[in-house]
Amino acid sequence: MYIIFLGAPGAGKGTQAARVAQELNLLHIATGDLFRQALEKGTELAKQVKAYMEQGKLVPDEITIRVVLERIAAPGSPSGVIFDGFPRNRKQAEALDRTLAEQGKVIDKVVYIRVSEKELLKRLSGRWICRQCQASYHPVDSPPKVRGKCDRCGGELYQRSDDKLETVKKRLQVYFSETAPLIDYYARASKLLEVDGEGSVDEVTARMIAALHGEFAGSRER
Ligand code: AMP
Fold first, then answer.
1. Which of 7, 117, 129, 147 could form a disulfide with 113 if both were Cys (CB 3.0 to 4.6 A apart)?
2. How confident is the model at residue 220 (pLDDT cuts 50, 70, 90)?
3. Is the CB of 31 under 6 A from ligand 1?
4. Domain count for the chain
5. Pick the catalytic residue: 36, 88, 123, 191?
6. CA of 74: how far to CAs of 29, 38, 46, in Å?
7. What is the CATH number of the domain that holds 60?
8. Of 71, 105, 160, 169, which residue is the catalytic one?
């Protein structure tokens, strides 16, 4: 099963992809997390991606596609993959389609998480993330039980440097010009599954699991 989670920064892709991947036993590949891990370790990749990330711009396609393809090729993938934050433009989408086709595979579904722009700005500008498990919190909507600590794993919470208002605005602008056209690309391929991303984290997860189960149960019956 190969699933893409599509949506604006702040739509909840990371949080929801982690939960759904666990529920369906899928490998969760998040390009943003892979880049942030590289930055923490100070690897060669970090030097190539740092400036783009700090400015809220997309990392060049050659680098991003290489990182994702290496990750898919790594042994030990469970029954499939959830791609979170990839693809982010047409070139990446076509590269992914081509590579999967070479292996006799296809993208089964693209879950588009819909959230209003007002809500996105609110969520991103107050967001705290767990350093260990990437769970995300908000002081008003979803505060942690203990300040500064993750409810799930006890990890330290921090604010992403690209969640500053100016960078958030740039990331949203990049999303609307480069990534949002993919909604149409996958709708034309009859792969799009639209899910309302507003409401509590649990509500959204339940909607996603129900939508995906409905789809895959439907395709087994057909
Ligand atoms: P995210 O955690 O998905 O919000 O990604 C954080 C940052 O990593 C983005 O603002 C980009 O600079 C970079 N990034 C993540 N995924 C991609 C991608 N598929 N293509 C290009 N840049 C990416």
1. 7
2. low
3. yes
4. 1
5. 88
6. 12, 17, 20
7. 3.40.50.300
8. 160
